[in-house]
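Handoff note, outgoing to incoming analyst
You'll be picking up this chain. Sequence as last confirmed:
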Amino acid sequence: MTAQPAPQPGAPARPRKPQTSLQVLRTERISADMVRIHAGGPEFEAFADRYAAKDATDQYIKLWFVDPALGVQLPVDVAALKDELTAQGRTEQLPVSRTYTVRRVDRGTGELAIDFVVHGDEGLAGPWAAAAQPGDWLMFTGPGGAYAPSPEADWYLLAGDESALPAIGAAVDALAPEATGHAFIEVDSAADVQDLGGPAGLQLHWLFRHGTPAGTTTLLREAVAGLDWPQGRVQAFVHGEREMVKSLRDVLFVEHGLDRKQVSISGYWALGRAEDAFQAEKRTEIGQIIPAGYPA
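Most recent structure output, in case you need it:
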């Protein structure tokens, strides 16, 4: 990771991002490989205000996980804990973060919903979500994110794998009843299909890997490239595994000549990378979805 410059003497400290601490209210298995966590508590309304102020459907948060060996009683001020551990030279025990899309904020019920892909014991957040019980603490910072379906678009293109499914679902929820378009979603099998609802004019295309590992297929690129492109101005939302997303660049920007302002495109994860390594690589050539000067 590139070293950050030391703050200049007298320079104001960077303001800390607000932390929210909520408790798990209930969980539900919404498909074969996805668990939805519903959380709430006294800090929900303050977070809901920040969420509403951004007016975006792909808003994400940074979930923080504290090493159980520390014996810390939750919830805890994560930033203060990081400072304390760093001062003590215990950087190997620093809290770690995982990035997740907010699936829904329901002020009527006072609930935040987050969807987790679960593959057995793989990863950190997935196993936590699979085992979560009411009362467990969810500590996070955020939200960030900017995409929302533009009312000026003639039609919409949504494409991604499981990691993008919560954001695609949130976008579908926000579409106008008369909206039209196509959503391409790659999952393992029919057991992973979700009822997303949405306007009648939005066609959902579920692409099945049938056991092939996520991040190793060309299903999404082939499906989007083979689309009979509708007339009018499109707004595209393309997110998921990094190399898969890169494979769609030429389809969007070269074959169809889309303007950057028409496209929200990014990698949510990278095959063979833990999140810390994936985030660090965003500063390097391999991590750049749209290189400088693209398309040449």
